Structure formats: structure tokens, C-alpha cells
Amino acid sequence: MSVTLTAYDHKLESVHGIGIKGSQGVKVAEEPDAVDHALLAELQEDGRMTHAELGRRVGLSAPAVAERLRRLERLGVITGYAVRLNPAKLGFHVVAFIRLAAFGTEPAEGSIDRLTEIPEVLESHHVVGDDCWIFKVAVPDVGRLEEILGSMTALGRTTTSIVLSSPVTGNKLPISGEPAG
């Protein structure tokens, strides 16, 4: 009998004497399976859920959940865990999107890196279209926004949109129990 085992069920070999297919021993599943998708869907709902509670919801033990989550982190499926903050409650009363259309084909080497090091830059996206980059910033006031814009205008034309409200934030990916294929 020959089976391909995943990292989270490698104990089957020693308990049941099952032969391992392949020359390198245990094969690690590289693509998220239906159980992984169920775990990810649960984590999107509550990222603070314990491994025991996650396991109860998807039918695994807490150690099996921990191992699967480590594998998903290693694969880059899970890129981190974070708390969502209200910028206004912390003194960042202006949220804006700044679009940058570079002079020429691309901004000078290293200039985008310098912009992303500005603490108020929350996100940066390299895009196609009329603009090359889109930045999301949170600043205390319009004066600080003007300073940031000043550092960008040497690189290209900027267009700024100040956020009035955000009716939809933090939507979850539509993960079903089945992997996309």
C-alpha cells in the first residue's frame, strides 16, 4: 500500500506501518485543501480564536490546527495577524488616497521605497492605467497631507482623494470549504 501523506498526518506511518510514496519521506501538501479553507474562513471571522476552538469548528485537534496554520504561514497563505484600528480615534483625522503618475516610465530607483517609509503611508499599490502607484495615507491634518504630497510631486503628477466615509472596510475573502481550482 502506498499513500502520499501530508505534514499534519505523518504519524500514520509509525502507527500503521504505511509505506511512504516518494524518496524524501513525508510529502507536504503545498496547496490549501478544504479543511484549510474552513480554518481560514473561521479565522477571517475571528482572528483571536484559540486553536482549540478552531479545531472544534472544523473537526481537528488543537495541535493539528497549529500545524496547519504554521504550514499556511510558511506557504505565504497567511501573511500575518493584526488588529484593526480606528485612525480618527488615534488622531489621524484625514485618510486619503494619492495616485501618482510618474514622469517618464517609472520613478527613479529607490524613490518609491523612500515614500513607503513615510509612517503615515498605510498601503502602496503598483498599478496599471493612467497612474503608476496608489498610496493610502492617514494623517492628523491637511497640513501633513500637503507635506507628503510635496515629497511626491518631484516624482510625477499626483491626484488626491480625501475619504469622507468608508461604508465597507475589511471585507473577508469569499472562501468556501473547497479550494479554488
Describe the secondary structure blueprint for this structure:
Blueprint: E1 2-3, H1 11-16, E2 19-20, H2 34-45, H3 51-58, H4 62-74, E3 94-102, H5 111-116, E4 121-126, E5 133-139, H6 142-153, E6 156-162
Parallel strand pairs: 1-2
Antiparallel strand pairs: 3-5, 3-6, 4-5
Helix pairs in contact: 2-3, 3-4
Structural write-up:
With 181 residues, the chain is α+β, with helices and mostly antiparallel strands. The chain has helices at residues 11-16, 34-45, 51-58, 62-74, 111-116, 142-153, and strands at 2-3, 19-20, 94-102, 121-126, 133-139, 156-162. A hairpin with a 6-residue loop joins strand 4 and strand 5 (133-139). The protein folds into two domains: 2-74, no CATH class; 87-162, Lrp/AsnC effector binding domain/regulation of amino acid metabolism (RAM) domain (Alpha-Beta Plaits, 2-Layer Sandwich). It is built from six helices and six strands. Helix content is 31%, strand content 18%. Mean pLDDT is 82; it is low at 1-27.
Kindly give the count of domains.
2
Q: Which architecture of the largest domain would the CATH scheme give at its second level?
A: 2-Layer Sandwich
Cα distance spanning the termini:
28 Å
Radius of gyration: 23 Å
The average pLDDT value, as a whole number, equals: 82
Proportion of residues in helical segments: 25-40%
What is the general shape?
elongated
